[in-house]
Design brief:
This protein has about 280 residues and is of the alpha/beta class. Helix content is about 30%, strand content about 25%. β7, α6 and β8 form a beta-alpha-beta unit. α4 crosses α5 and α5 packs parallel to α6. The radius of gyration is 19 Å and the shape is globular. The site of adenosine-5'-triphosphate (ATP) has 12 residues, from β1, β2 and α1.
């Protein structure tokens, strides 16, 4: 349905028997600006299995958003392979890409990206352009109820708090039951209480509905609420750690940033780089 599958591709399966939903192999991304080449990704490979909750960390400019755009099929890599839910993304034409984005991916942005003069309910109905009308409203309501906004259906973005606006964006991202939720710093513009509420929604969607979620954050405390942390630096994947005992959103108190980083990366080091995370 989504273009030809390469005959030889078989999605890897992890120890729990979960299939890979994201499988990128040696991805590079080069931005060319006049004579200057920016090598934003320099050979990144990553497999994300069905049901995982992953955070991507790394300094500014390390390639996190570039990688999210590729994972979200918003952009194609310069080289390398990407299999999304078994489909070879490189072989898709623009209309297949648009469809796969709509059906398989829910994207949440730092800046919410809501339409200014559109009610919460209508924003969430929009991704269902392929569905039938009656069901659309019912499903949009259910998605808004799932993020705790059942009583804000007719509100415009300007009539909602930042955390509530982000929850509308999450409802919009989940309404098509996507295989993956991708969120690029979804708590970056929120105060810590709203950030925790938003985090709690992602965690609940992951734990109760098994939604595979990839989440960019600068905040090590937030990353500790996910199951696995990927670290990018200079366009390379430099660490991939399972989080020991992930925290439950809203229950744990925030310790100092330094302690958080130490907790996650205390056993991580790679040639010549040990100091970086000590
Ligand atoms: N459209 C573009 N054209 C040219 N260069 C770009 C473009 N987008 C990103 N870059 C460059 O690619 C590199 C990676 O950028 P990216 O936005 O992926 O970083 P990031 O890790 O998301 O950073 P931040 O934490 O600040 O959001 C940077 O050096 C950036 O300047
Ligand atoms: Mg970014």
């Amino acid at each position: 349905m989504f273009g030809r599958k390469k005959a030889e591709y078989v999605a890897p399966v992890n120890e729990q028997g979960r299939k890979a939903v994201i499988d990128i192999r040696d991805i590079t991304k080069v931005y060319t600006m006049g004579d200057i080449e920016v090598r934003a990704l320099q050979g990144v490979s990553l497999t994300v299995y069905d049901g995982e909750f992953i955070s991507i960390m790394g300094p500014s400019g390390s390639g996190k958003s570039t990688m999210m755009h590729i994972l979200g099929a918003l952009d194609q890599p310069t080289s390398g392979e990407y299999y999304l839910d078994g489909v070879n993304v490189a072989e898709l034409n623009d209309s297949d890409l648009a469809r796969i984005r709509n059906q398989k991916i829910g994207f949440v942005f730092q800046s919410f990206n809501l339409l200014k003069r559109t009610s919460a309910l209508r924003q969430v109905e929009l991704p269902m352009i392929y569905g039938n009308g009656k069901d659309r409203t019912k499903r949009a309501k259910a998605a808004l109820e799932a993020v705790g906004l059942g009583s804000r259906l007719d509100h415009l973005p300007s009539e909602l708090s930042g955390g509530q606006q982000q929850r509308v964006a999450i409802a919009r991202a989940i309404v098509n039951q996507p295989a993956i939720i991708l969120a690029d710093e979804p708590t970056g513009n929120l105060d810590s209480r709203s950030g925790t509420e938003v985090l709690k929604i992602f965690q609940t969607l992951n734990r109760e509905q098994g939604r595979t979620t990839v989440f960019v954050t600068h905040d090590a405390f937030i990353a500790r609420h996910t199951d696995r942390v990927i670290m990018l630096r200079d366009g390379k994947l430099v660490a991939d750690r399972k989080v020991p005992e992930p925290l439950i959103a809203g229950e744990a108190e925030r310790p100092s940033e330094a302690a958080e980083l130490e907790e996650i990366f205390k056993t991580v080091y790679y040639e010549g780089d040990k100091q970086e995370y000590n």
